[in-house]
Design brief:
- This protein is an alpha/beta fold and 404 residues long.
- The protein contains 16 helices and 13 strands.
- The chain has 2 domains: 215 residues, Rossmann fold (3-Layer(aba) Sandwich); 175 residues, Rossmann fold, CATH 3.40.50.2000.
- The strands form 2 sheets. The chain has a 7-stranded parallel sheet with strand order 3-2-1-4-5-6-7, with helices on both faces. A 6-stranded parallel sheet has the order 10-9-8-11-12-13, sandwiched between helices.
- β6, α7 and β7 form a beta-alpha-beta unit.
- α12 packs across α15.
Length: 404
Amino acid sequence: MRIGIDISTVLNHGKDIGAGRYIYNLIKNMLALNIKDTFVLTARHITDEYLPIIDELKAFSNSGEFKKSKENEKLEKSAYKKSSLEFKLFKVGNKKLNIWNNLGFPQLEVLGFNTDILHCPDFLIPPTTNKNIILTIHDLAFIRFPHFNFDWFVKKYTKEVRKNSARAKKIIAVSHSTKKDIVDFFKTTPSKVDVIYEAAEENFRKLNEEEIDRNLLGKYKILKKFILSVGTIEPRKNYVTLIKAFNLLKSSCSDFAYQLVIVGRTGWMSEAAYVEYEKSPYKKDIIFTGRVPDSELIHIYNMAEVFVYPSIFEGFGLPVIEALQCGLPVTASRTSSIPEVVETKEFLFNPADQEDMAKKIKQILTTDEELKKELSQKALKNASKFNWRQTAENTLRVYKKLLQ
């Protein structure tokens, strides 16, 4: 079987956020499992700084040199070098890419890209004559909450995803919540949609005390015990309500000696979060770190007291799994896919209710040490249900079933 995968997203935006992380880890783990089939990767939108990702992926197949690194330290060399990997890449500028998409020609097959199936892992389908298309849909937040996005984006992608959902032979949803939205919004037959959960990187784990780099506290101006939240600064992530909840905790407890640390890049429509921060009488204890590399983020997870995920809507909620893998107690929104991921339902809150959010945060912070250890163990057990190998196995199963 020749398996085509569109990797445009990972070569345009990198492998450290969103769909790029999904694509990179999926391919890496499928290569480790598969010994017969050929993977043919294509991309039409490429940013030079992400070209080294091609060599990284080659290293996991029989077309490159396997190199031991922290990223793949748990993977045996013998697991790789068995799968064939080919690339058909087309570096096209934005203007020409739009023309190409609008014309729908030339199709990839005309340019030498020939596969039995084509997996499009981020909503969009490139010009192709392939009938065996598999589409991954991560979420439909832009349809559910259009006011959190620009009008042009909502109109364009609603039309695009509706059309592509109808065209695909199979759809992979990353949660039951996302599957329900696909069925409800697009009237898709439920049997056409398979739910396959995502996972977090293996390097997110509970560290021993001697492994933790406490110098990072100084780097990010973290001076006290802290509450952690991770996610892009945008309206859907609900940082306005989180800051209000933090203000409540500070004002109601004179001895509340914690900082709020928010890790994430600035996204669109982020102004409201920063305005709320400026208004806070406790802003000296609120820290926006910006984007933090994974190599440092693992230490920050391990040093935090509690992880808060206030998001109004998530297709999956990857930072929650990262926190759980580090043994960090989690309190999160009782909405969309999040209850599928977080097993400690007693710590879920209404994301629109700052008092409920503050109450759940305080509940974890004021727990005695024995119970905190128990919560940490529960977090690790919870996280163990999500892993990339399982995601890869289930995805390969969808491919093979489609061709039967």
